[in-house]
Fold this sequence. Notes:
Layout: E1 2-13, E2 16-27, E3 31-35, H1 42-49, E4 57-62, E5 65-66, E6 75-78, H2 90-100, H3 105-118, H4 134-146, E7 152-156, H5 164-179, E8 183-187, H6 191-197, E9 200-205, E10 208-214, H7 215-221, E11 226-232, E12 243-248, E13 251-255, H8 262-271, E14 275-282, H9 286-295
Parallel strand pairs: 3-8, 3-9, 6-7, 7-8
Antiparallel strand pairs: 1-2, 1-4, 4-5, 9-10, 11-13, 11-14, 12-13
Amino acid sequence: xxxxxxxxxxxxYHNHRAVDGVSFEVEKQKIFGLLGPNGAGKTSLIRIITTIxxxxxxxxxxxxxxxxxxxxxxxxxxPEERGLYKKMKVGEQLLYLSQLKGLxxxxxxxxxxxxxxKFEITxxxxxxxxxxxKGMQQKIQFVATVVHNPKLxxxxxxxxxxxxxxxxxxxxxxxxxxxxxxxxxxxxxxxxQVEEICEDxxxxxxxxxxxxxxxxxVKQKFKENQFRIEFKGDRxxxxxxxxxxxxxxxxxxxxxxxxxxxxxxxxxxxQQGTLITAFNEILPSLNDIFIKQARS
Length: 296
């Protein structure tokens, strides 16, 4: 069963259709990439899912129930434009935001201290947000997003402002949240991060779904029958009859015709007495696919 299901969702702003008949599903306990160029409609979709705004038409279901005003307590949303109050202290801000999500004061304090201890930042309780660096504020925003143990977590550019150590810390926590049962929607422009942590993706462009599926399925769909052969020794294979993309003294990358298999080119190289050290099919990166689809 899906944690989130969208069916023909439409959102119109004056003369601009920001969301144009979007349908997709997010499976439970998956990390799902919501992708698209600027202005594609991602933020409009997120605002609809979190009930900040309403759809003009279409249906949305959270864990099998039609989306309603009681569902925000089941959702944790970390917006790209951070929503912390600069003059408030960390502790009172987290208490306030936790109670907005339905936690009692006792539950809120216990959950907050759990996360502050985990991040080793208990001494930040009485610090004002404006006293913290951008990266430190990011950690507090993350805590505010997950402190009420939401079923569905939406993270919009969650690694902005974080150094590599804290980026890895948040990545580890995302993986742990998933392991504990949460479903996570991850929105970013960094395609290498999507490849690293997402299992399924949907690509939105001009308000429409242009691509969806598992990361592995999408990469397989857009592969171009390219292979890289690495070798050593003095016997250099002759690939002059093939479409060579690149080569050096110890490797060659070849693009084969659609009716030619990788096994054939490998057999050909071996028959020439070449000492093969590696043979790999080259799959396109999500970044290449993203650019190609966004421009089409």
